[in-house]
Amino acid sequence: MTNFKKEIKETGQALLFVVVAMTIALAVGVSVSVRSLSSISRVSGTDTFSRVSAAAEGGAEQFVVKTIQELADLTGTCTGSYGDPPSPPAECLVTFPGTLDNADPINAQTILTVSTFNTTSDTSYDLVIRKDSLAEINMEGYDASSVQVCWSPIDANKPSDLYYVIYKTDGTLDTKGGVTTGDVPSPYETNGFDDDEGGNGTFTYCYTVDGYSTGNVKRLRIVSLGGDSSVGIMTTDLPTQGYKIVSRGELTENGNITATREVTVYRSLPYLPGVFDAGIYTLNALQ
C-alpha cells in the first residue's frame, strides 16, 4: 500500500508540472499573438489614414491652384448636391487608382465642393492679422456709407493698433487713416490717428471707417501695428472674399467605401503685399 500510494503521488506531481508549463506556454503564445495582431492593426490603420488623408489633400491641392475665374465657374457645378450614393460631375471628381499593376485593389478618389465665402459668422467677417502684416477686404459693390472694424490684441501683453487704406474701383487712393488705443509703444507712431470707439461683446476695440466714396470703393487694406490682432469686419453685406474648397477623400475596395476624410481650404482673392502702399507714394526709390 505504501509503494502504491507513493506512485500515485509522483504521477500527480508530474501532471501538475505539465499543466503549469502548458498554461505558461499558452499565456505567452496568446500575449505574442495579441501583440502581433495589435501591431498589424496599427499598421493597417496608419496606412488607411495616410491614404485617405493624401487623397483629400491631393484633391484640395489640385483645386486651390486653379484661377479665380475657374473657381467661380466651379461654384455652379461643384455644389455638393451629388445624390446618395454621390455621383458628382467629372469636373468635381479626382481619382487616384491603385498601384502595382492593378494588384492593389484599393482605389482613392476625392469629391470636391466649391462655394464662395464672405462672413464666417452671423455678424462679422473675422480674420487674424499678424504684426506688421496686411490683410485685404474686398468691398467692390459695397454701397454702405461706413463699415465698422473691430479688433482685439491676440496677446494681452502686446497691444495693437490698426492702419487702413481704401482704394477706389479705378485703383486710386480714396482715403487712409488709423485707429489707436494709445497703448502701442514706440517705434509705432500713431499721432493724428482717430481715437477708438470702445469695443463690443466680442472685440476689445471698434472703429467706424467712413468718409470714402460710397459705391465707388474696391479694397479695404488693414495693417496691424505693434502686435497680432484678431479683427472683425462688422457687417454681413460684404461681397465675396474668396472661395471655400471642401475635399472629401474616399478609399474604395471592390466598389465599397472603406474610409473617408474631409479637408477644407479657403482661397482668398489675390492682393498685393503691404509694400505696395508705400511704394506708389514714396518720393524716392525703395531701398
Report on the structure:
Helices cover 26% and strands 34% of the residues. It is α+β, with helices and mostly antiparallel strands and 287 residues long. It folds into 2 domains: 1-118 and 241-287, no CATH class; 125-239, Hypothetical Protein Tm1070, Chain: A (Sandwich).
Average pLDDT confidence is 79
Helix and strand content put the structural class at: alpha+beta
Strand line-up of the largest beta sheet: 4-10-6-7-8
User: What is the helix/strand order?
Assistant: HHEEEEEEEEEEEEEH
Percent strand equals 25-35%
What would the principal axes of the Cα set say about the shape? elongated
Main pleated-sheet profile = 5 strands, mixed
- How many helices? The count is 3
Query: Number of domains in the coordinates?
Result: 2
Helix share, percent: 25-40%
The total of beta strands comes to 13
End-to-end Cα distance? 114 Å
- Low confidence ranges: none
Radius of gyration: 32 Å
Output the keywords.
single chain, 287 residues, alpha+beta, Hypothetical Protein Tm1070, Chain: A, 2 domains, five-stranded mixed sheet, four-stranded antiparallel sheet, 13 strands, elongated
